[in-house]
Each structure stands twice: as C-alpha cells, then as structure tokens.
Design goal:
Two copies of one chain form a homodimer.
Chain A lengths: L10 H8 L7 E5 L12 E2 L9 E2 L3 E4 L13 E9 L14 E5 L11 E4 L3 E5 L2 E4 L9 E2 L10 E3 L7 H9 L4 E5 L3 E7 L3 E2 L10 E2 L2 H11 L3 E8 L3 H13 L4 E6 L3 H15 L5 E2 L3 E2 L5 E5 L2 E5 L4 H19 L10 E6 L3 E2 L5 E9 L7 E4 L7 H6 L2 E5 L5 E2 L4 E6 L1
Parallel strand pairs in A: 5-6, 13-16, 13-17, 14-15, 17-21, 19-24, 22-25
Antiparallel strand pairs in A: 1-12, 2-11, 3-10, 4-6, 4-7, 5-9, 8-9, 18-20, 20-21, 22-28, 23-27, 24-25, 24-26, 26-28
C-alpha cells in the first residue's frame, strides 16, 4: 500500500551510475595549499636531488679502496688534505690516493671521494694525519647525486593525493606551485515552510534548520567547498529558483534537503526534471534510512534530493554524495570512509531486499573487536547521530545479524 | 664507541612525560569553524528540541485509543476537524473523541492528539470523514517535545571532538558560537648552513629546505597552526634568537629541525638549556630512526630538537609532536594515528633495545591482511617517504619479524 518508489535501486547500482561522472578540471595553487589535494598531472623532476653527492655523517671523505680491510688492530693511515663544511663549495679539492678530507653532515663530497668514514671510527694523529679503524663500502654514508630523485624521473603521478611528504619532495625540487584537481563547489539548500535559520528564534510551529549546518561540515571534511543558499519555501518556483541560482553561481553539486513530505519531494523531482529535461538518474534507493533519494544529472553537475530527516540525510550523504565528491576530486571513491569490523552486542534484525544502516555505539570487548549496540530513536533525531559512533551495515541479502556475529561499521 | 646519548629513553616514557602537559585555553568561534575542534566545556540544552510535538509523516493526527484495533476489515471511522500544515500554529484546535486532524510532516501536533496515522493507511470518504485501516501506538510517527534534547540536559560533554552531527545539534538548539580548545601555534625553524628556501635556486654545495614544508603540512593536518620562521644558520646565537622570537610571538611549540651534525645538535641543546634554565626532559630516544631527539619544557610550552634527516624527523613528529598537539587540543593523544595489521612480506630484522619504524609499502594479499615490504633507502631521502604507505613498528623487545608474521603499520 506504500506509495512512491516502485523500482528501488541498489546502492551498488547508484555508485555505478555516479562512477560515470569524471574528475573536475585543474587549478594551480601554492605548495602549502596543495595538501590532501590530487595532483592533476604527472610531475617530473626538473633536476637531480640532491644536486651533488652529500655526506650523511660528520667524518672524513675517503676513497673506499684506501680503507679496505681497516680495523682496530690494523688501521689505515690517511693524510688530511682539507676540510669541507656544510654549504661550502669544495673548490678545487680532489682526493688522491691515501688522502682524506674532513667533512661535515650535508657537506659536498670532494672529487675522487666515494665514501665517508664516521668521525667515531677515526683518530687524529696530527692535523694532517688520521688513523681509520673501520672499512667503508663505496657510497657508504653518502647520498649520491640524484639518489633522492633523478632529473627527468617521474616523481609524483597524476592522481596522487598529496601528503606532507609529497609536498616536501616538491619543495626539495623547488616546485612551489602545483596543478591540482579543483575542489567541487557544493550548494546546500534547505526546504520547508516549517524551517528557520539556526540564527533565529523559531516562532511557534517552526524549528531551526539542522541539515544545512550538518551538510556544510560534511562537505568541508570531504574536501568540497560548501556554499549555503539558505532556506527556501516548499514551492516549485522557490526551489527551481534556488537551484538555478546555485548552478549559475558555479555549483558542481546541488544538495536539496528537507521536504520530507510527499508534496515537497514531488517539487524537488519536478524541479530537477524541469532543469535537466530528463527523468532523474536515481529515484529511490533500497536502503534504510535513505530510501526517498533523488539524483539528477545536469551536464557534468549533479543534483541531489536528500531525505529531510537528518539521519537519513546523513546516510545518503555518506554513501553517495561523498562518493561523488571523491570522484570529482580524482580520488578513489571510498576515500575518507573508515570502516571497522565489529561484533554484534545484540540481535540486529532486518529484512532482505534492502540494505540497512543502523546507528550504533561501540564498546570495547574482551578481544580487539569492539561490540556494537543499536542507538534507538527516529531518523529525525539529530541526537541519535550524536550518540552514535558509526553505522552498522546489514547487507541487502541478509535478514540481520545474531548476537555475537561479526559485521561492518562505517565510522561517523 | 658511538658518542652522544648514553641514556636513551623508551618511546613509552617519552609519551608519559608529554602526558604531563595539559590542554590549552579556550576561544569562542562561530559554529562552522568549530568542526573537528574540542568542546572546552559541557554544553547544556537551553531549550526543548523540538519545542513541540511534531509529526514525522503526512497523515492524520489522532488519539491512539480511537484507532485501537483498526484494520483493513474493520476500519475506524473518524471525523476530520481541521488541517495543520508545516510551520503553522494549530491555533485553538483540540482533538475530541473520534476526531482527527489532517497533518503534514513536520506539523505541530494538535492538543489531545498523541499519534499520527500515515496517509497510506487512510481513505477519505468525504472532506469531513475518514476511514483508518491500521492501529497506531501512542507517540507513533510523532517526535515528542524535547525528545531530541530536553531543556537543561547535557547535550555535548567537554572534551568532545565536534563532528558534523554535533554542529547540527548545536544549530538545532540555536547555539551559533561555541567555546572550543585553542589550536596550538607551532613555530617551525630549519637550521643548517647548507639549507636554502624552497623558493631559491641553491648555489653549489647547498640544498633546498624540505623539512619546513613537510612539518608545516603535518602540523596543519593535525589541527595546529603552523608558523614558519625560515632557515637560521648553525650558530648558538642565531638559533637562540629564532627560538626567542617564536616564543615571543606566542608559539606553544617550537620545532627545530636540521642540524644533524653533532655540532648543530649541541647548539640546539645549549639553546634549550639557556632558555629553560634546566636540562631537557627528553634527550635521545630508543627508536630508529629518530634517536637524536631533544625535548625541553618552557613553562607550558614545548621545544623540540628534531633530527635533520627528513624520515627521522617525520617519525619523531608522528610519534611525539602529534601526541603533544593532541594533548594541547584536549584530544585523545592517539587521535589521527591510523594503524593497520599487516603480514610481513619478507624478513624484518632488528635488534632488541630499540623500537624500529621501517618505511614500508603495502600490497594486497590473498586475504584481508595486506603484505608489507620495506622501502630501501637512507633516512635522508624524502623519496623513501613518498614511496612508503606506512611505518612498520618493530617493538623494543623484538629481534624482528619473520616473513609471514603479523605486525602493525602506522599509515602515513
């Protein structure tokens, strides 16, 4: 007898459809701003790093063959022909047979030298003469020219998410601007005649908007640029106008939440159809909560009609909107999803034919695997999400879990 | 024969010592800026949320006892005495026995009504009369006044890290400014006569600074406010001056990296002793890489002498600096550390008496547990960190792992 969605789509199918979107264009940013963004192109090294062979120790630069077999009992005797400090050019210094040069960590290796003996394994007999107590292999205690990165080598591949160490490598190569994939701009619209801004005191019968603040924070966490467009009344014209404005202002994604009544959902659907000239690519998903989800495609942009109840809205965001934001950013679609193996602390009943996401708290148990317990409460209650550590997934083909069975939890 | 650190401290002991620092003071920020920050105080609800009983469905508000036992074959017959739209005040509407009111999702429940029957389970006989096909329990399809959060109830505890849903709850309660624990300000200083800024072309014998960029990004990721103070020469006066300036400008943490030569380390140590008037609280740690670490305490502030080699520097940052940044922010000290169980893809030898952190790449294997393989290369090579997915930990009491043994990896 339930009205509405006759052909619910599986979540796998929704993700497959979202997989047809592609990553956004690129922009060039300063190095520090490139953190956790995606390299838009392969980056090749413009030079050798380091540009010269360097010592990694304080000690003496030598020719390894001159100290072959040196030991405590049979030290090698070398004459000291100079000193190289860090940052100093060794000028015309060149090591001949039986010669050594005093060198400091980071110092440039003199011509002819191929290894460094740590100062601990030497004894100075006079300023011009040292004993060496340990043999070194060629290249020992030395970083060779280009050993970190050779000129022309691929040092960072397109699609790499830039971590602190990737930025460090680029700094070392003198690359201070990087071309990265753009961040998706996400317009957030709340609908509902009963909703007022969180900055207002709601008159009787009205409540404050919760979804906009929650979605704004989620988008920011996932690398998008949220843009709140406020609250619009439950009417076709108002929703159409807000959507149109969002698209005109460059939104890559429009999120409309609220409108949990059948009438309001109809407006969202009609607006999407009016804008795109075609039916939605997703209309109803076999998940709970989150069933009344609508997704339309407008060129390269995506329009989401999210459920109004905040828990449903968040589940749909986490499963699908985040998925698309990752794709837009050139990232693996599951980036940022942390899942955990848990043991069910009690029975989790479900029905086959839909995927359930049950809000749960986690408790430490006798072994490494935490126990999951359901958080009770309607999906319109934000407090249930505040209490929850994660969402326990009950697969579509499952009638639920018995107490003690293992399951997967998406961390919130 | 090795010089320097005779009493190496275990990493557990270092963390215990860092545990004596306490969280920073608080500041008040706008709601969206509070994301992922720590609530400095308990937050109590200033009002009931929602402020009235609301319908969660489109349907009819009823008295549950009037539809007790209603079914397809024996529907209940109720007279419709009005309609309540979302956001509308129900004025003087009050339900008497046998009466119903048409209501929309989000609509305020009329006096006397205690449940909502979904429109799907009703049939309108005429505008004033409906049949109801299903019984409802009291409170069914209704969110009660204060059910999300009761006035005066603790809704967010001090020390909670604010997720999107916590911000959503605060928005719902009209709390648009939050008192959160301050972010630690972290001054970053590179030393070394051989180091130039990443913006320069290094003259012969010099190389570009890698550590500052890497540390800046790490600090940003961990919620700190990085402040780069540039490169200072390897001299007591220059390092003292830079440290003093950092402290004067409000740094909570000073990171000095570089100075991997014995002489430069001595300067850092002497500067810390000059500033604090006491020996460092940590001087040498039984980890590899990362042994030559110095930590001093200056009132509530911390001074770190980090190893110059970038991989060593990063390991010490991840183990200890991040630990302290979490403590400063009132977070669990291990926040942000992601570790993973892996299987050793080959032998990982070590020696007892120190903890090893081996850079590894991870490969998918026949089961869920990835296989770890070492990334070879000196700890001065940033490229080893770029290749690495994580750091495989070999505990202090272990001589290493055999191929096939399970181990723990900290993800980079």
């Amino acid at each position: 007898m339930e009205k509405g969605f006759f052909h619910l789509m599986t979540s796998e199918k929704v993700k497959k459809i979202l997989g047809e979107f592609s990553s956004l264009g690129y922009e060039e940013v300063e190095l520090p701003s490139a953190l956790e963004r995606t390299a838009a192109f392969d980056i090749f090294s413009p030079e050798d790093l380091p540009p010269f062979a360097r010592s990694t120790m304080d000690g003496y630069a030598v020719r390894a063959r001159d100290v072959f077999g040196a030991s405590e009992t049979e030290p090698a005797l070398l004459s000291v022909v100079g000193e190289i400090r860090m940052g100093q050019e060794p000028a015309s210094l060149e090591l001949g047979t039986g010669e050594a040069v005093k060198i400091w960590t980071g110092g440039i290796l003199p011509k002819g030298g191929d290894a460094v003996v740590m100062v601990e394994y030497t004894r100075s007999l006079d300023p011009k003469l040292i004993e060496i107590y340990r043999a070194v292999a060629p290249s020992e205690n030395v970083i060779l020219r280009g050993q970190d990165c050779e000129k022309g080598a691929l040092c960072i591949s397109a699609g790499t998410r830039l971590r602190p160490q990737e930025l460090g490598l680029l700094a070392g190569l003198g690359i201070t601007r990087v071309r990265v994939v753009k961040r998706p701009c996400v317009a957030i619209i709340s609908t509902g005649d009963e909703v007022v801004s969180e900055k207002e005191t709601p008159p009787c019968g009205k409540i404050r908007d919760i979804n906009s603040t929650t979605l704004e924070a989620l988008v920011k966490k996932d690398g998008g640029v949220p843009k709140r467009l406020g609250i619009v009344p439950d009417s076709f014209e108002a929703i159409l106008d807000a959507c149109q404005r969002a698209l005109d202002e460059g939104a890559d994604v429009v999120l409309i939440s609220g409108g949990s009544s059948v009438g309001a959902r109809d407006y969202t659907l009609k607006v999407f159809e009016e804008l795109t000239g075609s039916p939605p690519i997703v209309h109803g998903v076999a998940i709970r909560p989150g069933k009344p989800t609508i997704i339309s495609r407008y060129g390269d942009k995506a329009l989401f009609g999210l459920p109004g109840h905040v828990a449903s809205c968040m589940v749909v965001y986490l499963l699908f909107v985040r998925h698309l934001l990752n794709i837009y950013q050139g990232l693996h679609p599951e980036t940022g999803l942390k899942s955990l193996k848990v043991r069910c602390g009690q029975m989790f009943p479900s029905v086959t034919g839909r995927e359930d996401y049950v809000r749960v708290t986690l408790k430490d148990s006798w072994d490494d695997i935490p126990e999951a317990f359901p958080v009770f409460g309607k999906s319109g209650l934000i407090s249930t999400l505040v209490k929850a550590h994660g969402l326990l997934k009950i697969p579509r083909d499952s009638e639920g879990f018995h107490q003690g069975e293992e399951a997967e939890v998406l961390l919130l």
